[in-house]
């Protein structure tokens, strides 16, 4: 465990050094945030039907999505890990006394946390003071905020377990692009990163609710906005914990199976 904590600390400190990249990311995320909000604003102003989520809640959803993008994006990748697998340098990792799964998990967790720490606070600080209708409101009450933090952190742990499955799949496919398409593009859509889950058709929502992806992004964001009640949030946090343990167990099992079959050629 001490080795995993050390790797986590080193990766976190290393990630916090990339301030210029963070500034560029903040500008990009503000741009996309405004674009998405304006699209939804136009949609809401021209609809005569009752919407399943209010515009204010949707704006909160978008700003949280942009602020914590590093927490919830599945296409966030570490090319170093892909190269270890595809070039055969995974042999060096196998020589380490610690398990690969734990080491890689600590690296990925630290990278996402460092990126979010650099970007989230500036985005939220500005979003709270924007003019209407672009302003992000405060949470409805302190209890909802605490539940949001718990749900967001559990979502982060879940997204890393899902990312680990993406890397493990490369042992079989040897194609990072294929794994990114399967987990990144499809997973992010099912997590509500393209279309918020409440705006999806009912048949698609039934599929989304069965899968784990929505618990990483859609669920915590809707807890903050008040679209999900505190009672439902408590139940949802319990479901997050179940999914996290299940995905963690699946990942460790899949990693063990992949390493048992791995063949490294060359001298």
Global outline? globular
How confident is the prediction overall: mean pLDDT? Answer: 84
| Series of H and E elements | HHHHHHHHHHHH
Query: Which structural class is indicated by helix and strand composition?
Result: mainly alpha
Characterize the main sheet. Answer: none
Helix content: over 70%
> Could you name the ranges where pLDDT drops below 50 across 5 or more consecutive residues?
none
Q: Count every helix, treating DSSP H or I runs of 4 or more residues as helices.
A: 12
Percent of residues in beta strands? under 5%
Number of strands: 0
What is the end-to-end distance?
32 Å
- Rg calculated over all Cα atoms: 19 Å
Write a structural description.
The chain has about 270 residues and is mostly helical. The protein has twelve helices and no strands. Helix 2 crosses helix 7 (about 100-125) and helix 7 packs across helix 8 (about 140-175). The two termini are about 30 Å apart.
